[in-house]
């Protein structure tokens, strides 16, 4: 069973600049874990410590029970990683770059052509004979992801894997990761809440080198319920009729002809009661969080006071 | 749980060596250096043909062209190996290579042997040209094959030493280009200037790899260890290393700088 474990892991680049402070977590089996935090929070530092690119100041990082500092080669035996912006040798072709990684991982090249063919289908790689030095950023990112996946390592560590990709490429990667997480352990950092929501089962929030929360997305949904919902009615409705649902409803604004953004106190039961009240007012076409749960959790935990964008002015 | 075992260090060394050799062979700098060495060697051949200035005997003729080997060696080795460590920490190559299940020492040794092999192959062009010219002027039978073979062995040792030194310098830089330039400046100009200064003082420049490289030619045409020239109060002493001395200096460079490079490479972090 694939396993990642971090015990009291700390890293400082200088005494006054701790990048990671006493981080602890342990994951095993399969699934996808999102590693979230603002720039400079310590996300990439953690992933670098987990791939042996950095040495811890104190504490331990182990993969499959092998300490990264003690035996990096054996610890990384079943790991595919994309950290920062990797670049294969520019004079290698796409196929050669992936083959080289396969050879370092298993020492064999006998069946690698078929495997590269599969990765090509899944990731829509650039022409395999093209030199990697001539690839665009997005093409190169897909190649390094393919290289990380060749020989099917059971642990996949990704540092903002969709950076530089266009929407189509992002969907490609998202679908691939959703497929892989069934029997792989994926740890990925990202700034994109949408991406993490769609891929990850569990999340870790980190800020200023400290892990703030570790939980499943479901549990976070309970803890950080969206504080506003968007409701759409099949027929026009007066805003005052919704305001009349106070004290459940704190505020209402019109965001469209038949759409309203409703703010409330933020409990799941309040949200359900509001829906029951709205249904009595007229046929409800849709009723959903005005923001992502993770976004709300992120803003609550990290702070910064970034609110939702103001709705468009009411036509009334 | 037990991880899937990666290949042995030996197998991974040969993977690194083969892949790196192919990488070097495809770079523009390889073709640039090959063109440079060919141009100078052929120019020497043409000049000696046109001027018929064949240095009197085969040994002297061969030695006169091989006299360029220490200088060529520094330029070639610095360009080939001068970015070996810097490339992993100044560009994204390290993020591609250093997350693989391979010991850094294995990766660096494979890269080192590949750089030495490519550099030595380029120097072989100079030897081939010298032997071609000597065969033309004096006949193959007049060539001192034994001492030429010794010279070739010393040239190989020289390459091992200079590439190790280039690797050492490259561990201090993040920019591969800067690393190459500084390596050339220190090895070529730095040692040349230092040699000139200590020669005025009558001190043997035993610390210089460029000085040690002289044995590549003096093994074919021996030169006195110490020669003093000058008039009145002004004397200028030139030294030529003993063969054993040159070999020991090169060996020391090889052992010390490769050892330090390995130590640094294993400990260096990807902070950028």
Question: Explain this structure to me?
Answer:
The complex is a heterodimer of chains A (316) and B (272). Chain A has helices at 43-49, 72-75, 94-106, 112-123, 137-149, 167-180, 193-199, 217-223, 239-243, 268-281, 293-302, and strands spanning 3-14, 17-28, 31-36, 58-63, 66-67, 79-82, 155-159, 185-190, 202-207, 210-216, 228-233, 249-254, 259-264, 284-289. With 316 residues, chain A is α/β, with parallel strands linked by helices. Chain A is globular. The longest helix of chain A is centred in the middle third of the chain and has 14 residues, at 167-180. In chain A, the strands form three sheets. Chain A has a six-stranded mixed β-sheet, with helices on both faces. Chain A has a four-stranded antiparallel β-sheet with strand order 2-1-4-5. Chain A has two domains: 3-215, 3-Layer(aba) Sandwich (Rossmann fold), CATH 3.40.50; 227-290, ACT domain (Alpha-Beta Plaits). Chain A is 34% helix and 28% strand. With 272 residues, chain B is mainly alpha-helical. Chain B has one domain. Chain B is built from twelve helices and two strands, in the order H-H-H-H-H-H-H-H-H-H-H-E-E-H. Chain B has helices at 9-26, 28-51, 58-66, 69-81, 86-90, 93-97, 104-138, 145-170, 176-200, 209-212, 215-218, 243-267, and strands spanning 226-231, 234-239. Chain B has a two-stranded antiparallel sheet with strand order 1-2. In chain B, helix 2 packs parallel to helix 7 (104-138), helix 4 (69-81) packs parallel to helix 8 and helix 8 (145-170) packs across helix 9. The longest helix of chain B has 35 residues, at 104-138. The two termini of chain B are 33 Å apart. The model of chain B has no long low-confidence stretch (mean pLDDT 91). The chains are: A alpha/beta (316), B mainly alpha (272). Chain A binds chain B through residues 1-3, 13, 48, 51-55, 63-66, 72-79, 81-89, 91-92, 96-97, 100-101, 103-107, 144, 147, and chain B through 1-8, 11-12, 15, 19, 22-23, 26-27, 91-96, 98-104, 267, 269-272.
């Amino acid at each position: 069973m694939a396993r990642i474990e971090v015990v009291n892991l700390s890293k400082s680049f200088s005494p006054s600049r701790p990048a990671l402070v006493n981080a602890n977590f342990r994951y095993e089996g399969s699934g996808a874990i999102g590693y979230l935090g603002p720039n400079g929070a310590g996300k990439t530092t953690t992933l670098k410590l987990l791939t042996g690119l950095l040495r811890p100041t104190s504490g331990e990082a182990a993969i499959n029970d092998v300490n990264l500092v003690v035996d990096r080669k054996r610890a990384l035996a079943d790991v595919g990683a994309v950290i920062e912006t990797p670049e294969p040798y520019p004079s290698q072709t796409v196929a050669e770059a992936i083959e080289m990684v396969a050879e370092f991982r298993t020492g064999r090249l006998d069946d690698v052509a078929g495997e590269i063919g599969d990765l090509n289908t899944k990731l829509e790689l650039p022409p395999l004979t093209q030199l990697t030095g001539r690839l665009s950023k997005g093409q190169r990112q897909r190649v390094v992801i393919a290289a990380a996946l060749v020989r099917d390592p059971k642990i996949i560590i990704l540092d903002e894997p969709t950076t530089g990709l266009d929407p189509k490429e992002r969907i490609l990667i998202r679908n691939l990761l959703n497929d892989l997480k069934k029997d792989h352990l994926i740890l990925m950092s990202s700034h994109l809440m949408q991406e993490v929501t769609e891929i990850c089962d569990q999340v870790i929030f980190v800020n200023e080198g400290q892990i703030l929360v570790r939980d499943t997305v479901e549990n976070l949904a309970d803890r950080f319920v969206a504080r506003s919902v968007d409701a759409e009615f099949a027929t026009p409705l007066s805003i005052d009729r919704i305001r009349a649902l106070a004290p459940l409803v704190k505020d209402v604004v019109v965001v469209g002809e038949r759409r309203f953004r409703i703010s409330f106190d933020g409990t799941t039961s309040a949200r359900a009661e509001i829906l029951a009240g709205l249904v009595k007012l007229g046929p409800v076409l849709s009723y959903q969080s005005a923001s992502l749960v993770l976004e709300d959790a992120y803003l609550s935990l990290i702070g910064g006071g970034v609110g939702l964008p103001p709705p468009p002015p009411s036509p009334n | 749980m037990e991880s899937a075992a990666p290949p042995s260090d030996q197998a991974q060394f040969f993977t690194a060596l083969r892949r790196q050799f192919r990488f070097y062979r495809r770079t523009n700098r390889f073709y640039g250096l090959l063109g440079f060495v060919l141009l100078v060697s052929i120019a020497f051949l043409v000049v000696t043909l046109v001027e018929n200035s064949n240095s009197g005997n085969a040994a002297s003729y061969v030695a006169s062209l091989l006299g360029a080997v220490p200088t060529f060696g520094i330029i070639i080795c610095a360009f080939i190996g001068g970015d070996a460590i810097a490339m992993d920490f100044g560009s994204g190559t390290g993020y591609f290579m250093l997350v693989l299940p391979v010991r850094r020492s294995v990766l660096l040794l494979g890269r080192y042997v590949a750089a030495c092999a490519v550099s030595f192959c380029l120097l072989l062009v100079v030897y081939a040209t010298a032997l071609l010219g000597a065969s033309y002027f004096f006949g193959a039978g007049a060539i001192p094959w034994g001492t030429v073979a010794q010279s070739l062995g010393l040239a190989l040792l020289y390459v091992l030493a200079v590439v190790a030194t280039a690797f050492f310098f490259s561990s201090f830089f993040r920019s591969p280009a800067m690393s190459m330039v500084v390596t050339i400046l220190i090895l070529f100009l730095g040692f040349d200037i230092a040699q000139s200064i200590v020669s005025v003082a009558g001190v043997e420049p035993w610390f210089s790899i460029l000085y040690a490289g002289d044995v590549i030619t003096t093994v074919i045409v021996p030169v006195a260890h110490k020669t003093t020239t000058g008039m009145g109060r002004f004397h200028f002493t030139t030294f030529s290393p003993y063969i054993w001395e040159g070999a020991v200096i090169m060996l020391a460079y090889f052992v010390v700088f490769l050892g330090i490079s390995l130590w640094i490479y294993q400990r260096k972090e990807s902070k950028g």
